[in-house]
Amino acid sequence: MNCNELVELVTDYFERALSPSDRARFETHLEECPHCVEYLQQMRVTLETLGGIPPETIAPEVRERLLETFRNWKAQR
């Protein structure tokens, strides 16, 4: 697994949705790549921080802009 593949799978990793073989590949990559370990830690902190924001407190226009940004990002990949 390379770094780009790991980034694509990080959500599934957190949600424990990876197959056993993909999880093993993911964790093997982490053993070999300090940059991805740092990225994974940053994502954990982000989720812990933003996961506590109640959705109803996000202004509808901000929510839509965020969703559009993620849609565009995904489409460009």
Count of alpha and pi helical runs:
4
Mean pLDDT across all residues, rounded?
A: 89
Q: Architecture, according to CATH?
A: Orthogonal Bundle
Count of strand segments: 0
Q: In terms of structural class, how would the helical and strand content be classed?
A: mainly alpha
Give the CA-based shape. elongated
Helix/strand order: HHHH
Helix content: over 70%
Q: In percent terms, what proportion of residues is strand?
A: under 5%
Description:
It is a single chain. With 77 residues, this protein is mostly helical. The protein has a single domain (3-76), classed as Orthogonal Bundle (Arc Repressor Mutant, subunit A), CATH 1.10.10. The protein is 77% helix and 0% strand. The protein is built from four helices and no strands. The protein has helices at 3-14, 20-32, 34-50, 60-76. Helix 2 (20-32) packs across helix 3 (34-50). The mean pLDDT is 89.
How would you summarize this macromolecular structure in one to three sentences?
This protein is an all-alpha fold and 77 residues long.
How is the secondary structure organized here?
Layout (H helix, E strand, L loop, with lengths): L2 H12 L5 H13 L1 H17 L9 H17 L1
What keyword list fits this structure?
Arc Repressor Mutant, subunit A, mainly alpha, 77 residues, 0% strand
